[in-house]
Write a structure and sequence with these properties.
It contains 10 helices and 29 strands. With 510 residues, the protein is an alpha/beta fold. The strands form 5 sheets. Strands 12, 14, 15, 16, 17, 18, 20, 22, 24, 26 and 28 form an 11-stranded parallel sheet that branches. Strands 1, 2, 3, 6, 10, 11 and 29 form a 7-stranded mixed sheet that branches. The N and C termini lie far apart (82 Å). About 2% of the residues have low confidence.
Length: 510
């Protein structure tokens, strides 16, 4: 037995070594796998980080392009996009404007379509069917430089390479807007605050042009992202590109009461007989009167209702309009047959409320009412002036009393506006919500621009299903309301372009 045991021990010699070697091999395999996995995860994270950096860089490019479309931006490119300025506020379909953002010592030329150019704009041909170098493409050069090259001392800005701004059309968007089954109309699209519209005969009344903003970003690690915005002027500017009247009463059962005691042809300072509402454009060239109705209403029944005061106003010489234009006129809904009518977004409480919310988001100052503006208590933004008009929103009632000054810009009141005509306003006054404008004092101030009143909410603040009875009452006096196209345009320019849609365009490495 002892001999047999000794033999067994001899045959088991070296087993521990084999097991140790096998264990070491297993550990090595696991360690190698973990190293490879960690390397893969690092590479994946690096690629993801680079891709996300390119995404946000491209988004920054879109925002720079959108921001510089705004006329009040100190670096506005509106003159490039709209070559005719105020005389032609439409960007031609062939117009192409580029903002470039090269790194130090780098050349970024999106219209160089050679295969060696990593920043070539080949997407333009996908949209318009022609290369951007085609003779029909009105490419503006030199390119516009980005303002984001350095956003702070020693801090580099976003690495987008270029931003392109063009008109938007059925052809470029590949969307059948007019419903004829052929998304091939090359004419610019317009936006009325609710929907996009096609026009082959020039600008659409009461609508603003839609633009496309495209941005390409390329990181140092080779990640490429191309983003695109569809933008239009704010809902306010799109819906009220031109005001329908100097004073607009929007809704059903509206009422108007003007001061008594004269026909507008005489009287001393502050006398009710000095009160006028005029649709004659203050900014029309001498000898070429133009403008709009002095007072506009939207329900034909309101004119025949003697309680509304509209028929009495029509018979008074206190209310003036250009030759051939009714002093007190019906504003019908906008239709293809009547494109200059009231836009759809202004015909419903929900549409008007959406416009109120959009204005509030971009306001310089939002105040909760009830509140009073006077010489001793100022609620308007600091620095408001003729050079710096502002947007003020009062959520609730506003009383202006003993304020012997002038306001500039956009004033939106969701409650009742009690107005002291010793004050003047240059711009636009919107009373949307409770829809009540009241003034029962004399004064020497006047409103230059336009006033729009709509009743969209009941006494409890709930949104109405249909528009209610907006009212305007000014029994004391003052100089009244004078339509000014320049102040209307200035006010519209206070609101930046809004984004209608956003998409990413798939990219491949050149």
């Amino acid at each position: 037995m002892r001999v047999a045991g000794k033999h067994r021990r001899q045959t088991e010699r070296g087993a521990a070594l084999v097991i140790a070697i096998f264990t070491l091999m297993l550990i090595s395999v696991v360690a190698t796998a973990m190293i490879l996995m960690a390397g893969s995860e690092t590479a994946v994270k690096g690629n993801y980080k680079s891709a996300m950096q390119a995404f946000y860089d491209a988004k920054a490019g879109l925002e720079e392009g959108r921001g510089r479309l705004w006329a009040n931006n100190p670096n506005s490119i509106a003159n490039c996009v709209f070559p005719g300025g105020a005389t032609m506020p439409t960007s031609p379909a062939t117009r192409v404007c580029y903002i470039v953002n090269p790194s130090s010592g780098e050349i970024v030329n999106p219209v160089d379509l050679s295969a060696a150019n990593p920043y070539a704009d080949t997407e333009f041909q996908q949209e318009w069917g022609i290369p951007v170098t085609d003779a029909n493409a009105d490419v503006q050069q030199p390119f516009i430089n980005s303002t984001s090259a350095v956003i702070g001392a020693g801090i580099a800005g976003p690495l987008f390479k270029w931003v392109r701004i063009t008109a938007r059309s059925e052809l470029s968007s590949k969307i059948d807007v007019n419903g004829n089954g052929q998304p091939d109309d090359p004419n610019p699209l317009f936006y009325d605050g609710t929907q996009q519209l096609v026009s082959s005969a020039g600008p659409v009344p009461n609508a603003a042009q839609v633009l496309t903003v495209t941005a390409l970003a390329v990181t140092p690690y080779g990640s490429r992202r191309m983003m695109q915005y569809t933008v239009a002027p704010s809902a306010f500017a799109a819906a009220l590109s031109t005001f329908p009247s100097a004073l607009t009463l929007d809704g059903n059962g509206v009422s108007f009461t003007g001061p008594s005691g004269g026909n507008g042809s005489g009287g001393g300072s502050g006398n009710p007989s000095n009160f006028q509402i005029s649709g004659n454009d203050l900014n029309a060239p001498p000898g070429s009167p133009s403008g709009i109705p002095a007072i506009g209403y939207t329900n034909s029944d309101d004119y025949s209702n003697s309680d509304s005061g509209l028929s009495a106003a029509a018979a008074s010489s206190n209310y003036l309009s250009p030759a051939g234009v009714s002093n007190v006129g019906l504003i019908p809904p906008s239709t293809p047959q009547i494109p200059s009518g009231l836009p759809l977004t202004l015909q419903t409480p929900s549409g008007l409320d959406a416009m109120v919310q959009a204005i509030t988001l971009n306001a310089d100052k939002v105040v909760t009412g009830p509140v009073t503006q006077s010489d001793s208590h100022n609620i308007f933004p600091t620095g408001m002036s003729i050079e710096t008009p502002t947007i003020t929103v009062v959520n609730g009632d506003l009383t202006i009393n003993a304020w012997h000054n002038s306001g500039y810009g956009l004033l939106l009141v969701t409650g009742q506006l009690k107005y002291d005509p010793d004050a003047s306003w240059n711009g636009v006054i919107l009373v949307i919500g409770k829809g009540v404008f009241v003034s029962n004092q004399n004064g020497t101030g006047q409103i230059n621009g336009a006033v729009f009143i709509a009743n969209t909410r009941d006494a409890a603040g709930n949104l109405l299903t249909n528009l209610g009875a907006a009212s305007f009452t000014q029994t004391g006096g003052g100089q009244g309301i004078r339509y000014s196209s320049n102040w209307v345009k200035t006010t519209q320019a206070l609101l930046p372009y809004q984004v209608l849609s956003f998409r990413e365009i798939a990219q491949t490495t050149p």
